[in-house]
Amino acid sequence: MPDAIADAISSGRPFALLARDGETVEILTGDVVDVALLADIPLHGVDGAPREVLALVPYRQIVERGFVCHDDGAPLRCLVVDEHTAIPVAAALAALPTTPIPLTDAGFDISDAEYADIVRTVITDEIGRGEGANFVIRRDYTASVDTDALTAGLTWFRALLEHERGAYWTFLVSTPGHLAVGASPEAHVSAVHSDSGAGVVTMNPISGTFRHPAGGATSETLTEFLSSTKETEELFMVVDEELKMMSAVCSDGGRITGPHLKEMSRLTHTEYMLRGHSAMDPRDILRETMFAPTVTGSPMQNACTVIQRHEKTPRGYYSGVAALFTPSSDPAPRNGAGTHDLDAPILIRTAYLVDGRLRVPVGATLVRHSDPDGEVSETHGKAAGVLGAIGAIPRDEAAERAVLDEDAPTVPKASLADDPAVATLLAARNERLASFWLNPQDGAEAPTGPGAGRTALVVDAEDRFTTMLAHQLRHLGFAVEIAPWSEVTDAAVAAADVVVAGPGPGDPRDGASPRIARMRDVVGRRLSSGRPLLAVCLSHQILADALGIELAPLASPHQGLQKSVDVFGSPASIGFYNTFTARVTPGTTWLGATEIAADAASGDVYAMRGPGYASVQGHLESILSRDGLETLERLIVHALTPVGA
């Protein structure tokens, strides 16, 4: 066995094996330190010198953002690296064990029927009542393992190296009492220092799951998947959610590129790449991006509440991240960007072995179009993707890549994304999206825009679409502050040149909710003052209610729905994330001093404007709003126009 791996095992110390570049296996050895907070991750020694740290961040760390969870006390475990070496993949494959690891007492912790019932409940009681656009609910595949944990883990790691392809990280982490081995397809967030001093931040939203048929995927079998409305909207919704995070940490808001295919041995996904620039400490970047909507849902805060309601057990490390903090090559990073680069994949497609019990958590993304039986099947497919790769269940040999042979390298299998039909279907998705987010954003304020010299207060009602709104408002020239609904003061509401009352989950009619009550107060105060107000989604509904317009649930939720609507004489393609609507008698265009833009057939109100105020039901900041920025500018200019002008 190569000395580095043999030394790591024989030392009895904690260690990790990482395959990240397709060519080498990195061996990290060190000591373990468990800390309470991300800020406590020990990136510097007692002498102040930067050091390398691999941190396993559990799902329970979401409490740092004030969100709820089933708290199992899983530690924020840090491997403080004192030795980091690498060997070729072929050498590792030749050295690692291959003995099959038998599993007993294997199966899901909850039945298919029970999981399908949970799916129905979430669609009806959560999405159907406006609690959010999508939610990820997990179940666990479990089994007993009699083999020594480290031997089992090394065997599974070898199998993943040999049989899984397309992984972002293939890894094994061995620490006291806990072993994790997996092949994560998804980079959650990375931050790498650039020549300008600010870090280049990258996020990689992946969504949509195509389970390969026997013999592997072909362009023909992919066509239905890529044409699926459900799968397409699922990807768009997670891109929106990660753009919220990018807008919170990046001065330039984030630019999207893609879509691409993420091709693995048994599954294929669709993905985008998001990039921006940030001067934040990488630990702060990690905190602001906990955790990926692809494994939680959106809006994030309410998704955590829904997960707590419908998952009966804690998640452990599932949907958390493995975060590698590496000292930057720049000895004196500028602009406060910190001293470390960050590389953090999501902890999915991972097997955990503790006290002789294997656990493989998997989840499905539930949206308004979800079919309960289909989501059950998706969890089976994801579990099979892990179990097949580690050799715990039979593999589809026809779909396997060739075994690596350093003496006779194989020709890589051609990517299905290169097929003209597949490439056309992928490219067509961007025709629906806002060019604002597809083009580079410099993050600078526009001194000649309508907001030049003006302040905007954005009140966050627990949906971080407000970060994207703020970025667009800065693009229009405003100096922007975001304030949570629970912290915003009456003085701040009175002082801002314009108040943007933001979106959020829930029923706008629920006066018993402290959040709804406070948003009613914010909208009411600003409306009565006569000073400029823009209300978005939930706040649009609250404004409509204050103006005497009926509120009602939609027959079918508009979560992640793109519609072309008339906004005061101008057609606009806008993304909607609403379960409730303001509704007038069809044909109504005015109600007192308020002009109404509504659906001609249903009377559902899309936008309103009156003296000193304007509102919109859709999310002009969404990637689904092709005409979002232009419509936002029109509405904000109206709100700013002096009454009587």
The amount of helix comes to 25-40%
> By helix and strand content, what is the structural category?
alpha+beta
How would you characterize the largest beta sheet? 18 strands, antiparallel
List the uncertain runs: 333-337, 398-412
Number of distinct helices: 16
Shape: globular
Task: Tell me the number of strands.
Answer: 28
State which percent range the strand residues make up.
25-35%
Structurally, the number of domains stands at: 2
Give me the CATH fold name of the largest domain. Answer: Anthranilate synthase
Cα Rg: 25 Å
Average pLDDT, rounded to a whole number, is 90
For the termini, the CA-CA separation is 82 Å
**Quaternary structure type:** single chain
**CATH architecture call of the largest domain:** 4-Layer Sandwich
- The CATH homologous superfamily name of the largest domain equals Anthranilate synthase
What is the CATH class of the largest domain? Alpha Beta
Give structural notes.
- This protein is of the alpha+beta class and 645 residues long.
- It has two domains: 3-431, Anthranilate synthase (4-Layer Sandwich), CATH 3.60.120; 444-640, Class I glutamine amidotransferase (GATase) domain (Rossmann fold, 3-Layer(aba) Sandwich), CATH 3.40.50.880.
- The chain contains 16 helices and 28 strands.
- The chain has an 18-stranded antiparallel sheet that branches.
- The longest helix has 21 residues, at 229-249.
- α5 (219-227) runs parallel beside α10 and α14 crosses α15 (538-546).
- It is 28% helix and 31% strand.
- Mean pLDDT is 90; it is low at 333-337 and 398-412.
- It starts with a helix and ends in a 5-residue tail after the last helix.
